[in-house]
Write a structure and sequence with these properties.
Strands 2, 3, 4, 5, 8 and 9 form a six-stranded antiparallel sheet that branches. This protein has a five-stranded antiparallel sheet with strand order 1-11-10-6-7. It has helices at 47-64, 72-93, 141-145, 189-192, 197-204, 209-221, 255-270, and strands at 4-13, 22-29, 32-39, 104-110, 113-119, 123-128, 131-135, 171-172, 176-177, 183-187, 229-238. It is 32% helix and 26% strand. Helix 1 (47-64) crosses helix 2 (72-93) and helix 5 packs antiparallel against helix 6. The chain starts with a strand and ends with a helix.
């Protein structure tokens, strides 16, 4: 198996909002990398707490798990269900009780393979060779009925963490082997809803992944009435070999030695 490496970049911007209810994490544990983004639902109290509880649950479970994770799908299922119950229990303990809610999207990467799962309208993209190979399907009203919708109903989601006693149905992606140059992008709707898809792909395909992600985030956050903007981008690829240092002759203070050395160089070039 050839040696692989990856780089991961992360942003989280408040946008045109009073506070940031998004949360994210990139966590390495042995051969396993966990990526997760959560978007606390506006219009419901303590969305930022719901988002943070999901992130905390993912981190705690990864730290307790054996690595590599034998069954990533089951692991993600448990993360989402435990986070849901933690959010519901937190809301029930408040006086009066409240119903915090959050979206969730997460991915596990190990040994060149990626698994992912999501609830709500936070998305995962797999970008390869300048195009979108995979895009998660939002759990939202507009995608559920597959017809144009205007107004606030357009952004209404049909599944989330919290709110109901029963955990939401989770959508799992088909595990995929990553290729050199592939980019995984996990993001809240504050990014994908504001940056045209073609431009987003171009920015995520840039050589400088961090600069591309920051530019996309700034573009989304600068829009009028923009939402919180949170994203993680992971670039997979073969680790570039370090350039070998060129051989150089010792520097000498003796003019005669310098002259002889230069003569040797001339003769060597002439013999090629």
């Amino acid at each position: 198996m050839k040696r692989q490496f990856h780089e991961a970049k992360r942003i989280s911007l408040t946008g045109d909002r009073h506070n940031n209810q998004d949360r994210s994490i990139v966590l390495e544990a042995g051969s396993t990398t966990l990526l997760a983004v959560a978007d606390g639902l506006g219009g419901h109290p303590k969305g930022e707490v719901a988002a943070q509880l999901f992130i905390d649950t993912c981190e705690l479970m990864l730290r307790r798990a054996d690595h590599p994770i034998r069954d990533p799908r089951r692991f993600m299922h448990e993360c989402i269900h435990k986070a849901h119950h933690a959010i519901v229990n937190y809301g029930d303990r408040q006086t009066p009780p409240i119903c915090p809610r959050s979206t969730a999207v997460m991915a596990i990467v190990q040994y060149g393979k990626a698994w992912w799962a999501h609830v709500g309208d936070s998305r995962l993209y797999l970008i390869r060779e300048g195009g979108i190979l995979v895009q998660t399907h939002d759990h939202s009203l507009v995608q559920a009925i597959d017809q144009p919708i205007s107004g606030k109903s357009r952004s209404a989601i049909t599944r989330c963490l919290g709110g109901l006693d029963q955990p939401p149905e989770i959508s799992f992606g088909v595990p995929m082997s990553l290729q050199d140059g592939d980019t995984l992008l996990l993001c809240s709707d504050g990014l994908w809803n504001q940056v045209p898809q073609e431009e987003l792909v171009t920015l995520m395909s840039a050589d400088d992944l961090g600069a591309g992600l920051q530019r996309a985030g700034n573009m989304a956050a600068s829009r009028p009435r923009s939402d919180n903007v949170t994203a993680i981008a992971l670039r997979w690829g073969e680790k570039p070999s370090k350039p070998q240092p060129r051989a150089s002759r010792p520097v000498s203070d003796d003019p005669m030695e310098e002259a002889i050395s230069e003569l040797h160089d001339v003769l060597a070039r002439g013999s090629k």
